[in-house]
Amino acid sequence: MPVEPAGNLPGLDFVRIEESKKSKSRLHLDFRPDDQDAEVARLEAHGAKRVDIGQGEQSLVVMADPEGNEFCVLGQRRQ
Description:
79 residues, 2,3-Dihydroxybiphenyl 1,2-Dioxygenase, domain 1
């Protein structure tokens, strides 16, 4: 597992496992990028899909990775 220099923390490492997803995700991540639209496009280019979980009109985008694990890409924090 790579170790990041202290200036780049926090960081996450993702490790692929051979087992398929059997139930709801055990971990849900929310990301708050500087540019939500650009990040959603980048994630879609890497295989993520937008998903509708009944969130309605929100400033967040709910997505799922190729294995179906949901996560959110949040908009800019309101001051």
